[in-house]
Design goal:
single chain; 6-stranded parallel sheet; 458 residues; 14 strands; 18 helices
Amino acid sequence: MSMKVLWLCNQALPAAARQMGMEASNKEGWVSGMAGAVLAGCHESGIRLSVAFPLPGHMIVPGQEFRAGTVDAETGGGGERASFSYYGFPEDVGHAEKYDGRLEHVLEKIVSIAEPDIVHCFGTEFPHTLAMCRAFPRKDRLLLGLQGLCTPIAEHYYADLPERTVRRATLRDRLKRDSLRRQREKFVLRGVMEREAVGLAGNITGRTRWDRMYAGEWNPKALYFEMNESLRPEFYGPVWNPEACEPHSIFLSQGDYPLKGLHYMLRALRIILAVYPEAKLYVAGNSLVAYGTWKEKLKISGYGRFLREMLTGLGLEGRVCFLGKLDAGQMRDRYLKCGLFVCCSAVENSPNSLGEAMLLGVPCVSADVGGISSIFTGGVDGILYRGSDHGGASGGPGTEGAGELGAVSGRLAEAVLEMWRDPRKRDEYCRNARKHALKTHDRDRNYQKLVEIYEEIL
């Protein structure tokens, strides 16, 4: 069966980015991995792929509505190549809470040129998904993939931060109009667009019981297809070795906004240090707590200031290391070097960071929130602990350490200590997690499932 499929992605695929002279992003690497599989199998499946994605306005030639081209991309390690068409349209993704109706007209034009049999939108986090769902007339040929969900993110955004921290805004927050309250408001607005987009789609893909619940609530008439994600190629092959890691080191894949729960981990770390005084925490991404220069002092956010106060107040100086931006290979190496990976988010669907750690056979501890229990079995793949019951702000002024923040942090600390108490059980968890992840993130199986979904829709 021959079919033309137009993907709507949140960013340029690396091959297209390089052709346009842009830096290829490390985010959502599973999308580019799936694109490679689709291109590699295009002769067998009959899929002719084209891809649309947002670009900064300066990347569009004046007088033109979008930027189009064709790129010849490598499809695998054997040197095989195939081409796809791309369309870059202007959108300010830095203000994803704002909807620009003009985008509907631009996407209508792209659709008229690409003439897709199916439009597949990856994610509901940005306004372009709603614009496409409005613009593409064949809702029965519209496939919407659920990734992170803005609506529950807004509900859990504060992640049990003290109320006074939520209310406080630094100079940076006021100048950029980006206080914690404003950040949450933006997710509320994005959630409104998200729910309308889901309501318009005739077909939905998801990967957890949790996202299926939301899909059924927002659009009970849509067909729901289960489809797992394939991860970046760097994470297939290597296996964690306890002899080669840094004992009693903990790795977090990010911690740059409250939802990711770094503040839970810091409180837990103080408890852990009482048992393992050599324990150390490594966090990928830029440091929110930098305060050495006048520029850093002016740029610190309200959340960054709270974390900084925790570091000093809990005596954690020298025990936490921010690693900066890491590419896929550097992330893989950090997973393999750590003694434990922790996912301490207030809410997640199925975080790829946890999947990557499981695939590498790294010991894992995770909060039992959102859809995580659909990809990670507590007591089999590692340890699940009970996360936040509500994810809002907790307590009034001066109540740091009270209420839900302290309770969640205590459960996290106990889960880490339990993992480290029994090396034999830890190794069993690692084997089970890797076996589980090899099924969940099987690239061939996930590609075949995608083709089956397209064929069923047609």
